[in-house]
């Protein structure tokens, strides 16, 4: 059934189209190349039709999302609240002080309760196992808004930003310089599927999780892409199209700050780092950012795509919600993702 809008049809299911309706979204490891591309196509389509053409698309009218936040947030909260609202739905913000998650009520029971109230549950949690418990008990899609192991919604925004900038993801080389964080883990679970090479520089003792790395090597071999690991940032940056870093001191690691800053000496990404990259290189950072991670000169330069990347958190969470909750198929024919 098509829902009327102020400027034409909303969309319908195309024959043979990818359909993710009802799926959980905990890690990109569980999604194929075509499934990831589908979410990116929907995201780009919504951005074009809503932002650039001014269309009204109430694709989530009558639907609601419960948002559990064990950790504070700017982009994840705002992108979800504004995005769901823009599509005609309602997002409800819940902190540990608002609900009984794991206290007086099991996580599984909370999942069952929320499934009766909401059409999706987005959770930003400390432990990835909390997401797995929620998904096990929920009868609606559970979305990973961040966990200690993965941050897949951020990677969707990164990929859309690079697609917009370069016109294609195939063959790009992305260099990660910094800690072996949940962002790196999610990049490892997705880039090879997009035909992208990954080069990683981490200080000794700060490498990616061994299990994630093993899967990344398998994916790289399967899709014929390169995976390079080093502790030398300049070696990792050699020939890269994209330089990426993240916080060196994540939430909960504040007591380790002094030691971490010593261990990450020489890892600040600067224009000098980019001097050995490809001529068309750009910079990404998921934010919030500290000056020790990237120089002001680079962060605020034309090489930096961090603010378009930040905005794309909204369009990709919208694309993801629509993909998991409806049968929508993109209506913009020229999308080449």
UniProtKB/TrEMBL annotation:
Q: Where is it mainly found?
A: mitochondrion
- Report the residue ranges that make up the Aspartate/ornithine carbamoyltransferase carbamoyl-P binding domain in this protein: 23-164
Q: Where is the Aspartate/ornithine carbamoyltransferase Asp/Orn-binding domain?
A: 170-323
Q: Which GO terms describe its biological process?
A: citrulline biosynthetic process; L-arginine biosynthetic process via ornithine; urea cycle
Its pathway? Nitrogen metabolism; urea cycle; L-citrulline from L-ornithine and carbamoyl phosphate: step 1/1
Extract the InterPro entries matched here: Asp/Orn_carbamoyltranf_P-bd (IPR006132), Asp/Orn_carbamoylTrfase (IPR006130), Asp/Orn_carbamoylTrfase_sf (IPR036901), Asp_carbamoyltransf_Asp/Orn-bd (IPR006131), Orn/put_carbamltrans (IPR002292)
- Residues folding into a coiled coil are none
Where is this chain's protein located in or outside the cell? Mitochondrion matrix
Q: Provide the alphabetized UniProt keywords.
A: Amino-acid biosynthesis, Arginine biosynthesis, Mitochondrion, Transferase, Transit peptide, Urea cycle
**Lineage: superkingdom:** Eukaryota
Enzyme nomenclature, EC number: 2.1.3.3
Under the GO molecular function aspect, what terms does this record hold?
A: amino acid binding; ornithine carbamoyltransferase activity
Name one cellular component (GO) term. mitochondrial matrix
Keyword Repressor assigned to the entry: answer is: no
Please verify whether the record's keywords include Protein transport.
no
Tell me the protein family, please.
Answer: Belongs to the aspartate/ornithine carbamoyltransferase superfamily. OTCase family.
PANTHER family noted in UniProt: ORNITHINE CARBAMOYLTRANSFERASE, MITOCHONDRIAL (PTHR45753), ORNITHINE TRANSCARBAMYLASE, MITOCHONDRIAL (PTHR45753:SF3)
NCBIfam families in UniProt: orni_carb_tr, PRK00779.1
Oligomeric state and partners? Homotrimer.
Its name, as the record gives it, is ornithine carbamoyltransferase
């Amino acid at each position: 059934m098509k829902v009327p809008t102020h400027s034409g049809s909303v969309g319908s299911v195309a024959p043979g189209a990818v359909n993710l309706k009802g799926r959980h979204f905990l890690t990109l490891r569980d999604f194929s190349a075509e499934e990831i591309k589908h979410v990116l196509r929907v995201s780009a389509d919504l951005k074009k039709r809503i932002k650039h053409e001014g269309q009204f698309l109430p694709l989530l009218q009558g639907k609601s999302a419960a948002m559990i936040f064990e950790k504070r947030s700017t982009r994840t909260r705002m992108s979800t609240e504004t995005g769901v609202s823009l599509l005609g739905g309602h997002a409800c913000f819940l902190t540990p002080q608002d609900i009984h998650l794991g206290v007086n009520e099991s996580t599984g029971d909370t999942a069952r309760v929320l499934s009766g109230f909401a059409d999706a549950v987005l959770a930003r949690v400390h432990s990835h196992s909390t997401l797995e418990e929620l998904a096990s008990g929920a009868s609606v899609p559970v979305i990973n808004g961040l966990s200690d192991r993965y941050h897949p919604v951020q990677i969707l925004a990164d990929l859309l930003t690079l697609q917009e900038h370069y016109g294609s993801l195939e063959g790009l080389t992305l260099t990660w310089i910094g800690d072996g964080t949940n962002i790196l883990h999610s990049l490892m679970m997705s880039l090879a599927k997009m035909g992208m090479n990954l080069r990683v520089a981490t200080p000794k003792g700060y490498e990616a999780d061994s299990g994630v790395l093993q899967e990344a090597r398998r994916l790289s071999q399967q899709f014929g892409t390169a995976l390079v690991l080093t502790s030398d940032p300049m070696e990792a940056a050699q020939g890269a199209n994209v330089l990426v870093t993240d916080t060196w001191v994540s939430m909960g690691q504040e007591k380790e700050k002094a030691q971490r800053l010593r261990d990450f000496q020489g890892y600040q990404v600067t224009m000098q780092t980019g001097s050995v990259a490809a001529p068309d290189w750009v910079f990404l950072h998921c934010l919030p950012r500290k000056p020790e991670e990237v120089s002001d000169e680079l962060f605020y330069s034309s090489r930096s795509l961090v603010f378009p990347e930040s905005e794309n958190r909204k369009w990709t969470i919208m694309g993801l919600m629509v993909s998991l909750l409806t049968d929508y198929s993109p209506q913009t024919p020229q999308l080449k993702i």
